[in-house]
Amino acid sequence: MIARLALIAALTAGPALAGDASGFDPAGIDQCLAAAPTQGARADCAGIGMDACLAYAKRKYTGDDADFPMANCLDASHQAWEAKLGSTYDALLATQGKKGIKPQEMLRQAERSWIQFREDLCHQMQDSAGETSGALAQARCIRDETARQVALLMSLGQLE
Asked: Is 145 a domain residue?
C-alpha cells in the first residue's frame, strides 16, 4: 500500500522529469499537436509516445512489479503534457492580458476550476478502478485530461 501511495505521489508530481531516461520522447507531443487540425484531433494526442516508451521500459526494467513500466511511462507522459500545458496557458494568458485585466482573470479562474475538476474526476477514476489498478487509472486520467486542456487552450488561442 505504501508503494502504491508513493507511485500516486510520483505520478501527480510536477514536470520535473520530462525528457528523462524513461524512453518517452516529449517531442512527439509537439509533432502530433502540429499535425492535428482540430481541438478534438489534438486531444487524441494524449497517448502519443506511449508505445515506444513501454517497449523501452519493458526492456530496461527487470523488477517484479508488472505495473512499473506503465506507471513510468504515464509519469513521463504526464510531465511532458504538464509542461506543454504551462507554456500554452502562459501564451494565452499573455494574449488575454493585452485585452485587459478582466479576460486575463477570467482565464485564471477557469484554469483553477479546471484543475479542481481534473483532480476530482481522476480521484473518482482511481476509486472506481479499485486498489490494484487505481493508481494507473488515476495517472492515465490526469494525463488525458491535461492533454484535453492543452487542446482546448490551443483552440482558444486560435480564436484570437
From this structure: yes
DSSP per-residue letters across 119-152: HHHHHHHHHHHHHHHHHHHHHHHHHHHHHHHHHH
Neighbours of 111 (CB within 10 A): 15
Q: 113-122: which pairs have CB atoms within 8 A and are 24 or more residues apart?
A: 114/149, 118/142, 118/145, 118/146, 118/149, 121/145
What is the pLDDT at residue 48? Answer: 95
The structure's pTM equals 0.81
Q: Is residue 75 part of a domain?
A: yes
Which ranges of the chain have pLDDT less than 50?
1-19
Count of domains for the chain:
1
d(CA 90, CA 74): 24
C-alpha cell at 71: 506507471
Residue with cell 526492456: 59
Nearest Cα neighbor of 151 from 1, 33, 54, 32 is 33
pLDDT at 85: 97
The whole-angstrom separation of Cα 119 and Cα 125 is 10
Q: Contact 23/60 with Cβ under 8 angstroms?
A: yes
Q: Is residue 17 part of a domain?
A: no
